[in-house]
Amino acid sequence: MPKLKTNKAAKKRIRVSKHGKLLHGRPGRRHLLSVKTAKRKRHLRKKSVFAAPDVWKVKKLLCLA
After folding, report:
1. Average pLDDT for residues 17-28, to the nearest whole number?
2. Which of 4, 8, 17, 43 could be joined to 21 by an S-S link, Cβ 3.0–4.6 Å?
3. Are 41 and 29 a contacting pair, CB within 8 Å?
4. Model-level pTM?
5. Could you tell me the strand order of the sheet in which 22-25 lies?
């Protein structure tokens, strides 16, 4: 059976934390930043954890499952 290939686009956007959780950047931080408040932009800096139903799909893309 051939080796599984990692999805490179997903690999660049997703990080695995120390405890095995999958983290991704929050959407809404690319453009139109002048209309967003400083508080909103500050909270968008933090990484977000994937929702439980999506974890298995993402693990499949990263060849972790």
Report:
1. 96
2. 17
3. yes
4. 0.83
5. 14-16, 22-25, 47-49
Helix (H) / strand (E) element for 49: namely strand 47-49
Over the stretch 35-62, which tens digit does the pLDDT of each residue have?
999 999 999 999 999 999 999 999 999 9
SS3 state at 36: coil
> Looking only at Cα atoms, what is the longest distance across the chain?
52
Domain span at residue 43 reads 8-61
Strand partners, 14: 24
The CATH code of the domain that includes 26 is: 4.10.410.60
- The number of distinct structural domains making up the chain is 1
